[in-house]
Structures are given as C-alpha cells and as structure tokens.
C-alpha cells in the first residue's frame, strides 16, 4: 500500500501531527470489518491514506464467521492480526494467512484488542457481542469510533463512566449522533461522554444540558412508514429488508423497519449526550438528508445535512477535528427541492414508547431491551415469528424481567441472558 504524506490545505495541526509525522500514524483496529460499517470504514481508510489526508495503519480486524472478505481485507491492508468468533473457521484462516496473528472463539475480538498496540478502535460489531472488546479499547485509552449502538443501550451505565475515567475520546458513528455531536461542537457546547467535551467546557463553563433545550433525531420511517397496522403486523422478511434510503446490515435494517433502531438511538443519545428522555425527540424525515437537530435554549436550531452515506460520519470519527476532502457522496443542491417531515406514529410503532420506558426504568432495562430485540430479530429472520411479534416480545420481556441496578457487567450479562432465554422460549 502506497501512502502519500502530501499536505492538504484543509489540514489543521492535529492532522499534521497524525498524518505527516511518519513516526506516528494512527493504528486502527476495525471490529466487524466484514459488515456494512466495517467495509465502509476500510474504504474511508484507503481514501485518507491515498490522498495523504491521514496515515492510518490497520493493525487488527475482527469478524464473526465470514472469512472470505476477512482474508481479502487482511491482504489488502497488510494487517498483522485478525480475530474470528467462529472457531471452525480457524484452519482455513491459518492456511490462507500463515503469517498473521490469529485470535479465535467467542472472545476473539476482546483478545485482539487486549493484545495489539493500537490508537484507534472502530467498534462496528453488531449487537452486544461488541461490548467486551469496546470496553477493552476504552480501558486501553484508545480513541473509539462507536457504531455499535447496542454497547451503550445495554451497558451505558458502565461504559460512560469508564470513558470519563480513562479520558477517552468516543466519537459517535451513527449518523444521527454524529450530526448532534457536530452541531454541539459547532456551537461550542461540549459532549459529556467524549473527551473532547472537556476542551469545549473550558470555553463554555456552563453545564451543557443547560444550553440544550432538546435534540431531535431524524428517522427515515423505514419501509413501513405509510403502511397500515395490519400490513406491518404480517410483513415478510423480504419486505422488511427493503430499506428506502440506507444500505445496511440485516439486523439494523429490521430494526429500522420496526423503528427499534430509532428506539435504540434514543437510548444511545441519552447516554452519549447525558440527556433525559424528555429532551430527546424524534421526527420522521423520509429523505434522510438532515441527520438530526439540536435545539438550544435561545430557540436556535442547528442541523447537520448530507446524503445518506455512512462514509461521512465514519470519516469524521477518524479525522476529528479535521475535515479533509471526503470520499462520500456530496449533496446535489441542483436536485434538492423539498425536505419533508412527519410526526412519528407511536401507535403503529410501539418501539418508540418502549425506549422512553427503558430510560425511565434505568438499571438493567436497557440490557433486557437490547437482548430481547436481538433474539426476536433473529427469530424473525429465521422465519420463526411474524414481524409484529418482534416488538410484542420485547415489551413482554421488559414487563417480565424486573430491572436491577446496573452495578456490574456481570449483572448486565445476566439480564441479557434472561431476556434472550425469555424470547427463545416463546419463538
Ligand atoms: P453487519 O451485519 O453488516 O456487520 C456486522 C459485523 O459484525 C460483521 O463484520 C460480522 O462478521 C461481525 N460480527 C458479528 N458477530 C460477531 C462476533 N461475535 N464477533 C466478532 N464480529 C462479529 O452490521 P452493520 O455494519 O450494519 O452494523 C454494525 C453496527 O453498526 C451495529 O451495531 C449497527 O447498529 C451499527 N450501525 C450501522 C449502520 C449502517 O449503516 N450499517 C448505521 C449506524 C449504526 P461476519 O460478517 O463474519 O458475520
């Protein structure tokens, strides 16, 4: 791989420190490298290296079981270490990549993060399977690009104090949270969780929550935005996997169809920006051009816009605070005519209400909510339950499993286990 160190006019000193000093490249581990976010992340890395906007060495990759793209990525980026959760794949990996250090088994990505010297972690495993490795990255003081929202939904009570304790910069990759993060930075208001907040707090000593009236997460509405309750109840796997604006992995695509994705994002925002449920709203915006809004106490509203292309927030997480030229699509102002908005329908999409219940309940409720949803989505994708049953099962699990104080990871894992067992017994 050829890496140019040509200086770009948009680079600030921070980029220059990272990119042009050959002795200090960013050393990146990509967890979930074979998935939609992982592939886009490597695309952005290739672009930044080729344009000389950054120098990023990919020093580790982790995947679940999909070895063909993993082998290709390891070769293309000359990666010294990889992890695979499915142990059965290790002989084939060893044969294909004899010189690469290999970690295998359910905790392979955790072992990879613990063993490899890296500065940056892209947390893009799907589901709570990504939690342990992300926590390991935080404890090692790595800069975290967080796509894996389930980490905060299930374990925000443990993860956010750890981020502060270790002085870690955690930058959201989810487009809505990246938008809010960018609006807060633009307004000089800090973000509680990420290490960059402390920098902004020096300029603005008021607690951030006093300046923010509310944040408004935009939602495309998914494939069933205009569908009747009856159609939604019995939607097929094929219908639910057809997202109108985003091209994503299967789990998050189903989450978008149930609007569980927005529910998970409400909880993610609660932890990330330290805001109560009543300061987090949702608005349907079918074009997915505005990625979210921040409304301030003076009634000003800031928004961040861009086409629905995850490479923009991924790049921002990798290059913050710089904005070198991107490889994502640019907004085509010549065809942009209208931006539409609708109120969310809490009747057809009960998942949204559940998110506020989970924030209110606190403790292990987030872990139950997340795990029940993961198990129910898997059951739907395996055609064991109808579409409408997903949200019903999550609601039933929340009622049946009383929240406990989230005082340790073991407690959260126990709640996760109970929720999965609850759903599995009923599917
Ligand atoms: P995908 O299903 O496309 O990819 C999931 C990745 O996780 C794959 O690389 C998969 O490996 C890997 N994986 C699964 N289980 C394990 C495991 N036990 N150990 C190690 N790796 C594992 O998902 P997405 O890329 O769509 O989403 C990833 C995360 O990002 C999710 O949390 C999602 O909510 C979030 N996100 C995604 C967005 C998107 O546009 N896709 C937008 C915003 C957030 P394998 O391929 O081998 O199965």
Task: Write up this protein.
With 427 residues, this protein is of the alpha/beta class. 46% of the residues lie in helices and 14% in strands. The chain contains 19 helices and eleven strands. It has a seven-stranded parallel beta sheet with strand order 4-3-2-1-5-6-7, with helices on both faces. Strands 9-8-10-11 form a four-stranded mixed beta sheet. Helix 2 crosses helix 15 (311-319), helix 5 runs parallel beside helix 6 (131-139) and helix 6 runs parallel beside helix 7. The longest helix is centred in the middle third of the chain and has 17 residues, at 149-165. The radius of gyration is 21 Å and the shape is globular. 49% of the residues are buried. Mean pLDDT is 91; it is low at 1-23 and 200-207.
Compose a concise summary of this entry.
With 427 residues, the protein is an alpha/beta fold. Helices cover 46% and strands 14% of the residues.
State the oligomer.
single chain
Number of strands: 11
The geometry reads as: globular
Number of helices: 19
Please list the strands of the largest sheet in the order they lie side by side: 4-3-2-1-5-6-7
Mean pLDDT score? 91
Q: What fraction strand?
A: 5-15%
Structural classification:
alpha/beta
User: Alpha-carbon distance between the termini?
Assistant: 48 Å
> Strand-and-helix sequence, N→C?
HEHEHEHEHEHEHEHHHEHHHHEEEHHHHH
- Tell me the major beta sheet: 7 strands, parallel
**Which regions contain 5 or more consecutive residues with pLDDT less than 50?**
1-23, 200-207
The distinct ligands, each listed once, are: NADPH dihydro-nicotinamide-adenine-dinucleotide phosphate
Percentage of residues assigned to helices: 40-55%
Q: Evaluate the radius of gyration.
A: 21 Å
